């Protein structure tokens, strides 16, 4: 998938060489055991929370609101060749070690804030952590945006809340922010609007705090992103969430219109479905709508991105790709040399797109000016039975 995604993003020959070398030499050796023959999911030595089928890598195309071609990005979980040898928290340490190594080669990559949040939010006891999770043991991901050089982000996965917990997950995040080196009152002011909104939700509406992410750049420019998963799935609930129930300025009418269009096209919803109607009920651990709110120095209010979980609520990958292609056409967004549907068909060569869900994971949107910046998230389904026939 990596090579065609770069081609469809029209990276120069020089950058294709730079990014291919980085991916081949730095990323691939850190993705754990080769998936060949690993068709029995329960026997996998390490089950990654990156994707629902435990694939430890996810790719995405990100289009800005100004149109044109997308930037290629990917998220990974660093996994040792022999995951069973893990003790204490080497999974976290391995991620931090890679960022530290990259920072020695690129002065624009900073480790300080990621190290702080890893210390504050990642538990030491690996066995207790694994026992607390629902089918996975992941605690940290890394993501890379491919510009002239890779831009790095770190993701810290937060543990589930239990009746025995002495502190809620969102309170733990608040504590980590209060002790953040070089933090400011603006950060806490911005965070408090998120915290207060969550506190006012009743039990049936309560969003789960899933992850905290940080841009590994100069802290003065870095975003701290707080990821929430909401059980509410109507479009009306999305509109309430993205403005934190009125605590943030609502998106413009044109942005809301674009978001509704994206929602209906990618989920194959007809006009009879109203904004108040919830999506079909799903019991999966990753069901519900994902949001992140980013806070940063110099901003007194957070910004929001919404992730539509098409992997659960789409009809099939063919219809998701067809709907997203229509959205791209409406808003003059494109790929280099092919339409979106053709490109996705090329990359999902192990099976037909209309034979299931899961190749697409999310379609995301955030307001940028009067329009939306949108992203499509794809994963290679490395353990899919069709890959091992």
TrEMBL record:
Name of this protein: Aromatic prenyltransferase
Keyword field: Transferase
Origin: domain of life: Eukaryota
Record-level GO BP terms: alkaloid metabolic process
Molecular functions per Gene Ontology: transferase activity, transferring alkyl or aryl (other than methyl) groups
Recorded family membership: Belongs to the tryptophan dimethylallyltransferase family.
Pfam families given in the database record: Trp_DMAT
């Amino acid at each position: 998938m990596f090579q065609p995604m770069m081609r469809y993003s029209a990276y120069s020959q020089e950058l294709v060489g730079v990014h291919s070398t980085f991916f081949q030499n730095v990323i691939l050796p850190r993705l754990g055991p080769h998936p060949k023959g690993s068709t029995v999911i329960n026997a996998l030595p390490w089950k990654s929370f990156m994707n629902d089928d435990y694939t430890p890598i996810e790719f995405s195309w990100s289009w800005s609101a100004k149109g044109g071609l997308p930037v290629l990005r990917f998220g990974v979980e660093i996994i040792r060749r022999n995951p069973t040898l893990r003790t204490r928290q080497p999974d976290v340490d391995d991620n931090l070690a890679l960022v530290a190594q990259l920072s020695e080669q690129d002065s624009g990559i900073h480790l300080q804030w990621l190290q702080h949040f890893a210390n504050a939010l990642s538990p030491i006891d690996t066995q207790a952590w694994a026992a607390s999770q629902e089918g996975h043991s992941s605690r940290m991901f890394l993501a890379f945006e491919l510009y002239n050089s890779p831009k790095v982000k770190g993701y810290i996965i937060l543990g589930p809340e239990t009746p025995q917990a002495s502190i809620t997950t969102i309170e733990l995040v608040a504590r980590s922010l209060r002790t953040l080196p070089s933090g400011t009152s603006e950060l806490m002011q911005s965070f408090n609007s998120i915290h207060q909104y969550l506190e006012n939700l009743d039990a049936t509406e309560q969003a789960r705090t899933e992850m905290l992410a940080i841009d590994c750049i100069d802290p003065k420019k870095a975003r701290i992103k707080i990821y929430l998963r909401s059980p509410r799935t109507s479009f009306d609930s999305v509109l309430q969430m993205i403005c934190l129930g009125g605590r943030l300025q609502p998106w413009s009418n044109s942005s809301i219109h674009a978001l509704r269009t994206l929602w209906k096209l990618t989920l194959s919803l007809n006009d009879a479905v109203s904004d108040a109607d919830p999506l079909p009920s799903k019991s999966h651990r990753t069901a519900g709508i994902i949001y992140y709110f980013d806070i940063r120095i110099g901003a007194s209010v957070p910004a929001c991105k919404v992730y539509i979980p098409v992997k659960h609520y789409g009809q099939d990958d063919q219809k998701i790709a067809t709907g997203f292609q229509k959205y791209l056409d409406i808003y003059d967004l494109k790929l280099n040399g092919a339409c979106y549907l053709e490109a996705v068909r090329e990359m999902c060569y192990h099976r037909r797109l209309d034979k299931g869900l899961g190749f697409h994971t999310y379609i995301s949107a955030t307001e940028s000016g009067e329009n939306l910046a949108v992203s499509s998230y794809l994963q290679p389904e490395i353990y899919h039975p069709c890959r091992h026939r």
